[in-house]
Design goal:
This protein is an all-alpha fold. It has a domain of 85 residues. The protein is globular. The N and C termini lie far apart (61 Å).
Length: 125
Amino acid sequence: MKQKRSKRTRELTNNELNRLFERFSRPMVRPCINSRQKRSAVGIAKILWLRLVTGTDTEENIYEDLRLIFKDNHDSNVAVGSMYFFKMKSELTKAQISNLKKHYSDERNFNRLEHWEPPVSIESC
């Protein structure tokens, strides 16, 4: 009789989650020249992270979220949307994104996102 292997993956640690977020947010946070810009970039990155880890990061959803943030600034909307799809998301491998989705599919982990503060240092500006 064959034994079935468990398809369950281990839970990601806080350090792993923080490291993945830092990689993901790097294209948006790195160019910031002051703490106000960096705080804004981290806030936007958190919204995009939420879309990524819940698997709801369709073009329509991303650009709708960005329209709410940037109002009528079409250029900013397009620039940040392109950064998300072509730089931020590509900082992570498909396997890492899959593991993040599995991790956050657990309601306990998802609920922790509400109070989660990313590890990006704002003081370094």
